[in-house]
Amino acid sequence: MEPKQNIRLCVDAVVFGYTAKESISVLLIKRTIPPFMHRWALPGGFVLDGETLEEAVTRELHTEAGVHINYLEQLYTFGRPERDPRGRVVSVAYFGLVNPTNFKLAASSDAEDARWFDIKKLPDLAFDHSDVVATAVKRLRNKIRYEPIGFELLDQKFPISDLEKLYETILDRPIDRRNFQKKMNHLGILMGHNEKQKHPSAGRPAKLYSFNEEQYIKLKQEGIIFEI
Amino acid sequence: MEPKQNIRLCVDAVVFGYTAKESISVLLIKRTIPPFMHRWALPGGFVLDGETLEEAVTRELHTEAGVHINYLEQLYTFGRPERDPRGRVVSVAYFGLVNPTNFKLAASSDAEDARWFDIKKLPDLAFDHSDVVATAVKRLRNKIRYEPIGFELLDQKFPISDLEKLYETILDRPIDRRNFQKKMNHLGILMGHNEKQKHPSAGRPAKLYSFNEEQYIKLKQEGIIFEI
DNA sequence: TACATTTGTGTCATAAGTACGCAAACTACT
DNA sequence: AGTAGTTTGCGTACTTATGACACAAATGTA
């Protein structure tokens, strides 16, 4: 009655980080085992029988790259029968954000190496992982326009210009600095601190802000839509 | 090296239809086999080894309910270990839209019955299917605000007021008829026909329109954002 | 023919978005 | 010190979008 299936299930994670304050990076690991041995790939692996999908992703990220994740959501499930040379492997992909300055990447036994790659300069990836990354980049571009996910990528306190540059990088278009500040102040999801940027390379030191999550949740409940 | 997995994969479909022109319905089937025998559930079933996920959904919709689908996209993958009493079954849920006036529901051997249910008056569902439906309703409400999916639910030619009532139903709030018309005309994704509504119950007969997909694709490429 | 009803078009006030100008606060160089 | 260069913070004027509402046109019905 229930057909015998020969399908295995894995999870993969597309984790974005904002490193050099000028480009968006994605976390990749170098495979130590076939197929695609010594090729770069997304961190991920087979789901264990008793764990949830989120647990599987978190576990793999920890063991393969030593990453503690700030934000994680499900992205898409890739199920093309030919996507894995070993046989039928369906992969549930996740979308993650971290602030890379918070920790050091640590490749484990499962991975030769773990590194950040600029999303505009990716190497050839294993499996269909370039499709997965492309899907994640689309999600990132869409999502940042109406949800305040940018804060997960920055330090806790930051000048508004950092946030603006992040938006410019992700959306890949210039944004008027003054209108962006006006909009952010108007939205009220930033909390000002009586602190200033320490060592600006040049120019007037900027006031530091942090994300006011309480205010954001309040606005969301009132149905106010955040959009850039 | 690769752990022996005991996970099975199935697909489920949340198919919406706009029937009585006053409420949104979802397609459910009555199960003939345990678990949850004789309970209402989403159409779906196990994925076959050689088929894609989309093929699996389409096949199940066809065999269980005789439905030809207008629009289909992936919704979310549900993977809680306890979601199926038979063991670990991960389900990839899909989101579909049809115009129910185009065909007759036909329950097959796999289902005792297939019926449309008002999304506000759902019966107790099998498995975690009420979570799945809730996720799909959220997606429907979000999606209709910035993508012209409403057309999949209406006849090919329709008066603007039908489209407006559909939006009011899905968003569950009143919309100013005149501003809605203005906005639709301004967007230019409607194509007017030199035809009028045949038998209006009362009042001036409305001009009939159809969706101008070409124009929509053009606008989308130019980066113009559609929003209600 | 009068009336209820629904559509099509328009107006007007207000809110939001866009493109700038300019002074304040800092660094670096002379 | 003083001056040039840079970046921030705040403001202004113009354009565009949104929301509330008025009114005539086209139909069915009494």
SSE topology:
2 copies of one chain form a homodimer.
Chain A: E1 8-18, E2 24-31, E3 40-41, E4 44-46, H1 53-65, E5 71-78, E6 89-98, E7 111-118, H2 129-146, E8 158-159, H3 160-171, H4 177-187, E9 190-196, E10 207-211, H5 213-221
The structure holds a DNA duplex (30 and 30 nucleotides).
Describe this structure in words.
The structure is a homodimer of 228-residue chains. By secondary structure, the first copy, chain A, is of the alpha+beta class. Chain A is 28% helix and 28% strand. Chain A contains 5 helices and 10 strands. Chain A has helices at residues 53-65, 129-146, 160-171, 177-187, 213-221; strands spanning 8-18, 24-31, 40-41, 44-46, 71-78, 89-98, 111-118, 158-159, 190-196, 207-211. In chain A, strands 1, 2, 3, 4, 5, 6 and 7 form a 7-stranded mixed β-sheet that branches. The longest helix of chain A has 18 residues, at 129-146. Chain A binds a DNA duplex (30 and 30 nucleotides) through residues 159-161, 176-179, 181-183, 186, 196-197, 200-207.
What is the CA-atom radius of gyration of chain A, in angstroms? 20 Å
Structural class of chain A: alpha+beta
Task: Give the beta-strand count of chain A.
Answer: 10
Query: Topology as H/E string of chain A?
Result: EEEEHEEEHEHHEEH
β-strand amount of chain A: 25-35%
Largest sheet of chain A: 7 strands, mixed
Report how far the terminal alpha carbons of chain A are from each other: 52 Å
What percent of residues of chain A adopt helix (DSSP H or I)? 25-40%
Global shape of chain A: elongated
Instruction: Say what oligomer this is.
Output: homodimer
Residue ranges of chain A: pLDDT <50 for 5 or more in a row?
none
SS summary, helix count of chain A: 5
- Name the chain pair whose interface involves the most residues: A-B, 27 and 27 residues
**Overall mean pLDDT score of chain A?**
92
